[in-house]
Amino acid sequence: MSASFPGELLYTPDHEWLLKKSDTVVRIGITDFAQDQLGDVVFVQLPEDDAEVASGDSFAEVESTKSVSDIYAPLAGTVVAINGELDSSPDLINSDPYGEGWIVEIEAASPEDLEAALGELLDADAYKALTAEA
């Protein structure tokens, strides 16, 4: 299977994707490449709504038939939405990683904080190159 790399998203070296939802909020999930490497996702440990996360810290876990993988926060902020659908349908991460399989939305403290964090991330071409080396 060939992984997809939507151009409107930004990516982390840890295989998370980010979609900017507002001046301070991003939606986060794991990439098509990551879900393919994991295999069938059977459980997702989600953070609490309103949880504070620090950049680089693990805030969720994705468990598959092969392994358990931590999901790392690509920015500091507050969890403002969690995808509760993953409780009953963790396989959404496999079937629709960039859509219904999103994991959380995090709000940065300010638009400047969000822009600074996004400036550290990879565009689709850079992420595709990274995965080609894997």
UniProtKB/TrEMBL annotation:
Its cofactor is (R)-lipoate. Binds 1 lipoyl cofactor covalently. Residues 25-107 form the Lipoyl-binding domain. It comes from the Bacteria. Keywords: Lipoyl. It holds the Pfam family GCV_H. InterPro entries: 2-oxoA_DH_lipoyl-BS (IPR003016), Biotin_lipoyl (IPR000089), GCV_H (IPR002930), GCV_H/Fam206 (IPR033753), GCV_H_sub (IPR017453), Single_hybrid_motif (IPR011053). Gene3D superfamilies: 2.40.50.100. PROSITE patterns: BIOTINYL_LIPOYL (PS50968), LIPOYL (PS00189). The modification N6-lipoyllysine is found at residue 66. The glycine cleavage system is composed of four proteins: P, T, L and H. PANTHER family: GLYCINE CLEAVAGE SYSTEM H PROTEIN, GLYCINE CLEAVAGE SYSTEM H PROTEIN-RELATED. The glycine cleavage system catalyzes the degradation of glycine. The H protein shuttles the methylamine group of glycine from the P protein to the T protein. Belongs to the GcvH family. This is Glycine cleavage system H protein. It comes from Tsukamurella pseudospumae. The gene is gcvH.
